[in-house]
Design brief:
- This protein is of the alpha+beta class.
- Helices cover 38% and strands 17% of the residues.
- The chain has eleven helices and 14 strands.
- The strands form three sheets. Strands 2-6-7-1-5-4-3 form a seven-stranded antiparallel beta sheet. The protein has a five-stranded mixed beta sheet with strand order 10-9-8-11-12, with helices on both faces.
- A hairpin with a 4-residue loop joins β9 (209-214) and β10 (219-222).
- The longest helix has 35 residues, at 248-282.
Length: 416
C-alpha cells in the first residue's frame, strides 16, 4: 500500500520566493483548466482533453506576454496541476453517478492566492533528489533544508511541497510499503479488543476524562487538547478581531491564530498515532462502532466531538490494520450496545447518559455502562470467543468500510 511521510521544510528567503512563484503558477494553470472546461460546457462543446489543455495552457501560454512567467517554474509542477483538475472533475462526475463512495462532492472551484493551503507536486521525472547532506533538491527552487524525524523505508515515488495556514512548509513523500518488512515489524497475536468511544464518562483517578473504554476494562484518558488551549486561542482571536482589515498587523495576528490552532492539531494527531499504533501492535482484531461523527458534530456536543477527533483516530486504525495484516471491524451504529447485558444478552432498554452503572434485570449482573458496551462491540463483531474457542455470537455482519487513503494534509507521519 502507499503511505505518505511528512517532514518539516525550512527554506531560506530566496527559496520561499521561488516556492511562492511555483504555488502561483500551479494555481493559475488549475484555474485556467477549470475556466476552459466551464466555457466549453456553457457553449455546449465537448470538454477539451488533457492533451489539448496541456498544449494550450502550458506550451502555448509560455510564448505569450501574459503567461510568459510560467517558464520560471518546473514544467512538472504545471502538468501535475492539470492532473489535479482532471482528478477533481472525475471525482465530481463519479459522485453524480453514485460510483464514488463518501459524501457528495461539487464541481471544481477556482483557487485563490489567499487560500490558507498552497501545494505543488513533483513526480520522479522532475529530477528532484535528496542530497548527500540531507537536503531536498527541487528543480528551479534549490536544495531545501529538511528536518528528518526518521529515515524513509523505500525510495519515494513523488514529493508534494505544502505551505499550511500557519506559514509552515512540509515535504510529503509518497512511498510503497514492503509487506515483508511490515509483517516482521508486527508479528501475529491472538488478542482481540472491542472499543467503546464516548465523551460523557466520569473522571478517572488520573484526573482525565476517558475518550474510549476497551473491552478489557482499560480506560483511555482524553487529553482534551482544544479545551486546554481555549484561553490562549480566545485571546489570540480577540487580538485578530481588533486589527484593521488588510493591514500587516492583521496578517501577523492571523498567523498567530493559525499557529495556535496548528499546535492543537499536531498534538491531537500525535496522540492518535501513538494510541492507534499501540492498539494495532497488541491486538490481532479490533472492533469499533460505526459512529455518525458528522451527525454528532451538529449537536450541543460538537466542540467535544471535534476535540476528540474520532474520525481521524478510526481512519488511522483502518490503514494501520490494512498495512500490518490486522482485522478492523465496524459494527452498525444502531446496535444497542449500551442497553444489552454482555453476560446474558438481555436487552434492558435505553438509559439516560447520566446512568454510568446499571444492574441487569434478567441475571442481576452489575455493569459499568462503557465497559459493558465495549464487550458488546467486541461480541457483535464476532471477535469474542467462548471457552471452547467458538464465536459467542457468530453471524454478525460488519459494516462496510470506506477505502483507506491519504486525504487532506498535513496528516503527520502516517507510518507511525
Amino acid at each position: 500500500m502507499q503511505l505518505r511521510y511528512a517532514f518539516r521544510l525550512y527554506p531560506d528567503v530566496a527559496q520561499q520566493a521561488a516556492l511562492a512563484r511555483a504555488f502561483g503558477c500551479a494555481r493559475v494553470v488549475f484555474n485556467d483548466a477549470v475556466r476552459a472546461r466551464e466555457d466549453a460546457r456553457k457553449a455546449g462543446l465537448p470538454f477539451p482533453t488533457a492533451g489539448q489543455l496541456s498544449t494550450r495552457l502550458i506550451t502555448q501560454a509560455k510564448r505569450t506576454a501574459g503567461r510568459s512567467w510560467l517558464g520560471e517554474v518546473s514544467a512538472v509542477v504545471l502538468q501535475q496541476s492539470l492532473r489535479d483538475a482532471e482528478a477533481a472533475y472525475r471525482n465530481f462526475f463519479a459522485s453524480l453517478t453514485g460510483t464514488r463512495k463518501g459524501p457528495k462532492v461539487g464541481p471544481p472551484r477556482f483557487k485563490s492566492r489567499k487560500d490558507t493551503r498552497q501545494s505543488i507536486r513533483f513526480t520522479a521525472n522532475a529530477r528532484w533528489n535528496i542530497t548527500g547532506s540531507g537536503r531536498l533538491s527541487l528543480p528551479k527552487i534549490g536544495a531545501v533544508q529538511v528536518k528528518w524525524s526518521r529515515t524513509l523505508p523505500t525510495t519515494p515515488t513523488s514529493v508534494t511541497v505544502v505551505k499550511d495556514a500557519a506559514g509552515r512548509f512540509f515535504a510529503s513523500f509518497v512511498i510503497d510499503t514492503d509487506p515483508a518488512a511490515d509483517a516482521a515489524r508486527m508479528p501475529q497475536t491472538d488478542r482481540t479488543i472491542g472499543i467503546d468511544l464516548g465523551l460523557t464518562l466520569p473522571q478517572t483517578p488520573s484526573g482525565g476524562t476517558p475518550i474510549a473504554v476497551l473491552s478489557d476494562g482499560t480506560k483511555i484518558d482524553s487529553p482534551r487538547f482544544l479545551r486546554r488551549a481555549e484561553k490562549k486561542l480566545r485571546k489570540a482571536q480577540q487580538e485578530l478581531s481588533r486589527k484593521q482589515k488588510g493591514s500587516k498587523n492583521r496578517a501577523r495576528a492571523r498567523l498567530k491564530v493559525a499557529r495556535a490552532h496548528a499546535k492543537v492539531t499536531d498534538a491531537r494527531r500525535e496522540f492518535h498515532h501513538q494510541l492507534s499504533a499501540k492498539l494495532i501492535s497488541e491486538n490481532q482484531g479490533i472492533a469499533v462502532e460505526d459512529l455518525s461523527v458528522a451527525g454528532l458534530a451538529r449537536t450541543k456536543l460538537a466542540k467535544s466531538v471535534h476535540d476528540a477527533g474520532w474520525a481521524q483516530f478510526i481512519s488511522m486504525l483502518e490503514y494501520k490494520a490494512e498495512r500490518y495484516g490486522r482485522t478492523l471491524v465496524r459494527i452498525g451504529r444502531f446496535i444497542p450496545t449500551s442497553q444489552t447485558c454482555s453476560t446474558c444478552g438481555a436487552v434492558d432498554g435505553p438509559k439516560p447518559l447520566n446512568v454510568r452503572e446499571w444492574t441487569c434485570s434478567a441475571c442481576g449482573t452489575v455493569h459499568d455502562r462503557d465497559h459493558n458496551a465495549a464487550l458488546n462491540v467486541k461480541t457483535a463483531a464476532g471477535l469474542a470467543v467462548s471457552a471452547c474457542g467458538a464465536p459467542v455470537r457468530p453471524g454478525a455482519i460488519p459494516a462496510q468500510r470506506e477505502e483507506t487513503g491519504s486525504h487532506g494534509f498535513p496528516t503527520g507521519n502516517r507510518a507511525a
